[in-house]
Amino acid sequence: MTAEAGPAGPRGSHPRHALVPLLNSPVRLSVVAALAPVDRAEFAVVRDLVEVPDSALSKQTAALEAAGWVAVAKGRAGRRPLTWLALTAEGRAVYQRHLAALRAIAAGCEEAQLSGFVSPSCHHDGHEHT
User: Fold this and answer.
1) Per-residue pLDDT band at 47 (split at 50, 70, 90)
2) H-helix or E-strand containing 112?
3) How far apart are CA 82 and CA 22, in angstroms?
4) Are 82 and 76 in contact (CB under 8 A)?
5) pLDDT at residue 127, rounded to an integer
6) Cβ-count burial 114-130 (b if 16+ within 10 Å, e if not)
7) Are 94 and 69 within 8 A, CB to CB?
8) Nearest CA to 43 among 70, 78, 69?
9) 68 in Cβ contact with 86 (< 8 Å)
10) Which residue from 58, 38, 39, 63 is spatially nearest to 47, judged by alpha carbons?
11) 58-72: pLDDT as tens digits
12) pLDDT over 90, % of the chain
């Protein structure tokens, strides 16, 4: 296996090295996925899509905003306060790289199974593979 130097040190060639740790959270990944196909979405809409309470969405959105991947805008609709969420250009790019890595991992597993390197039953034995 070849290794290349990345910001955190040497990295292997396996596609898992391209996964974005911040998006390993199912809620954060779900938030980014909900925002990806739209220009912006109202906080309550994302909350309902992701099926989390306001506090959980707020906490996860703050982490994504701190990374520069989600922009938060406050406004009003009449007397009602609204919060809008949108992916930044960097957020979209990071999300696409993360998805590409997930696809590459899945494709590699399928190829290994087809080549006979990994038994299909191997993934149902209850333990993790590293």
Assistant:
1) very high
2) helix 89-115
3) 26
4) yes
5) 52
6) eeeebeeeeeeeeeeee
7) yes
8) 70
9) no
10) 58
11) 999 999 999 999 999
12) 62
Judged against a pLDDT cut of 60, whether residue 113 lies above it is answered with no
- The dihedral sign for the CA sequence 118, 124, 125, 129: positive
| Residue 87 burial class via C-beta count within 10 angstroms: exposed 0-12, middle 13-18, buried 19 and up | buried
CA dist 86 and 42 (Å) reads 9
**Banded pLDDT at 128 (limits 50, 70, 90):** low
- Strand, coil or helix: 70: strand
Among residues 87, 97, 82, the alpha carbon closest in space to that of 34 is found at 87
The identity of residue 100, as a single letter, is A
Q: Which residues of 25-59 are buried (b: 16+ CB within 10 A; e: fewer)?
A: eebbbbbbbbbeeeeebebeebbeebebeeeebee
Give pLDDT, residue 82.
95
Question: How much is the average pLDDT of 31-45?
Answer: 97
Task: Compute the distance between CA of residue 23 and CA of residue 36 in angstroms, rounded to an integer.
Answer: 13
